[in-house]
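Support case: user asked for a sample of complex input and structure output to validate their parser. Sending the pair below.
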Amino acid sequence: MLSNHKLYAYLHEEILPLESAYLHVSDLAIQRGYGIFDFFKTHHGQPLFLEDYLNRFYASALLMGLEVPLSEEELVATITGLIQMNGLSESGVKMLLTGGYSENGYNPGPPNLIMMEQPLTLPSEAQVATGIKVITHEYVRELAAAKTINYIVGIKLIQQVKAKGADDVLYHQKGVVSEFPRSNFFLVKEDNTILTPAHEILKGITRKNVLELAGKKYRVEEGTVTLDDIAQAKEAFMTSTTKRVLPIVEVDGNPIGDGKPGTVSLDLLQDLIALEEAQITAV
Amino acid sequence: MLSNHKLYAYLHEEILPLESAYLHVSDLAIQRGYGIFDFFKTHHGQPLFLEDYLNRFYASALLMGLEVPLSEEELVATITGLIQMNGLSESGVKMLLTGGYSENGYNPGPPNLIMMEQPLTLPSEAQVATGIKVITHEYVRELAAAKTINYIVGIKLIQQVKAKGADDVLYHQKGVVSEFPRSNFFLVKEDNTILTPAHEILKGITRKNVLELAGKKYRVEEGTVTLDDIAQAKEAFMTSTTKRVLPIVEVDGNPIGDGKPGTVSLDLLQDLIALEEAQITAV
């Protein structure tokens, strides 16, 4: 059904069928992997926490020296138009800004802005109840504070993650944990303190929301998290726009706590779902 | 004149006008900066050292888990066809292999192979006689042995290089020098020993040719090169396909030797030019 749903995208100042959205090969994303993006979700056709995602999008663009060709007001109007055209209730919207068409294949041109929307399925209750298994890998993202399109290490590792029967890969440097390719990492200590890495990470919007929610009920620390901390943890979970709060039950083959999703993790997921629902304007 | 020269490219199994070479936005180079490439030059319409570049192209693809959709024989036939169509005497040919059209914006699809050819101007005698100024920056390329399309750091630094009145940026990590974004680094010691970094670099084809040529006349070392070594050096130069041997006269505002292109550097450039000429089959 959804595969027959005709989707539209935004490119070169117009909304056009997604299937017709093409970039010339001189674009600096293709030539040199140069670009930034952001990604938010809609619920009942309404963007969630849009302001936060827009702020991060403009901040990433600034960090990478790319000028967003639309003002925030124009961007919101375009997003609204695109969402109306697509008519999806639950979706993910990607805003992508590339280094533009480059004359010499190295120096940026005027940036190309692309917006795409796709149907989104959040983790099912069964997936949450099972939790996920992860492996670790020594790596720290370049320019971690900017949401660049550079995922060469994460994508190269897909086969390795699969071969080990895992669902994702957690980055660390000399035992100091940072993040997943597309998600943030949290653990819950024996005393219910909630700990998440503070440095060399992309600051997720879901991470921010979960920190706020957690702060109302638990002790919360942003700081240094090590692989040793994980070995001692009672619970662990990842956060992201598409994963919300997803329990981690195994790291490098070793169970976290009793090897089942923990009560604090599941409690925070319920709080996040309630926060998301509360964002929706009654129609 | 050249700007009116109609250029052709290869994409999706056909040779087509470069101006019509477009990739769908779902391509993993656009979505996630995932791809590899290589770049060789032609002289009198003939590729130079093609076998070396093809070997590195296939090696980069293998390292990144991408399958080149053409055999080496088919690739050579395509290159030959493209060069004939374009009719350029002196050119650069780029072969680019992306992660392909991705269903979910993360997992690779069948790779897209693109070939582009552009007119190429090598450094003039005046540029060689002037030499270049460079700055340094602490960074080491991810997966340095593969020629990936990830240049986010190099391109982000363009403005900084320009602001400092320099021509390029040399990467080092804790004082250990590796390479330029697109070139290798060499220095000449007081005793005429030629030294170049051995690790965390892309092994340039021009680097390899220069090492071979230098080995016939001078003592040559591949090893660890530090910023201190640069401070003591008599000469320095960069090597690449498009720069050949280009003297470096200043690093971070400090002159190399007497601040002028050195005799060993200029001697090696002449040897390289002779080697290139010797590759050309008489027509």
